[in-house]
Amino acid sequence: MQAGTPLSLSTMTCLPMKKTILVADHSDARLSAILAGHEIVFVRTLDEAKAVLAGRVFDLIAISVHFDESRMFDLLRFVRWQERHRATPVVCLLTADFMRHAIAAEGLEIAVKALGGTAYLDLKSVGNAEARSAIDELLTA
Question: Which of 25, 20, 50, 23 is nearest to 37 (CA)?
Fold first, then answer.
C-alpha cells in the first residue's frame, strides 16, 4: 500500500478487542486459560468486589458459586442494583464438583436467572473450548 492511500475495510484486518472481565473467585488456572487474551481482575471477597466495581466498569462479570463462602447471590444482587452495571452481562459459574443431583443444578440456574444473571455455566461439564465459546457469546451479545 502506498503512502497516502486511504484505508478501506477490505484492506484492514479486524482483531478482536481485549475485554475486561471481573472474576469473583480464587485465581484459577483453568479459568485463566479459558479467558486468555482478556484482562482478568480476580476478587476473593464481596467487599473487594464492591470496591473494584465502585471504580470500574467491566465487559463481563463472572461469579463462582463458591465465591466468598457461597456469596454469589449477594454479589449478583449488588451488581444488578448498581445503575452503572445493570447492562453488564453476568455469568455464574460452577467450577468445582458441587452438585450431585441434576435437580439442584437446575434450581441454581433458575435462581441465577431470577436474580438477573445473564447465564449459568457448569464448567465441570464442558471443555475449555466450549466454555470459551459461551463466554465469547456473552461478550458480543
Answer: 20
CA 120 – CA 55 distance, rounded (Å)? 26
113 phi-psi bin (left φ>0, alpha ψ -120 to 50, beta other): alpha
User: Over the stretch 72-107, which tens digit does the pLDDT of each residue have?
Assistant: 999 999 999 999 999 999 999 987 766 556 777 788
Distance (Å) of CA 31 to CA 55, 72, 77, 90, 141: 24, 17, 23, 15, 21
Alpha-carbon distance 52 to 22, whole Å? 9
The domains of the chain, with CATH numbers, are: 17-106 (3.40.50.2300)
The reported pTM is 0.84
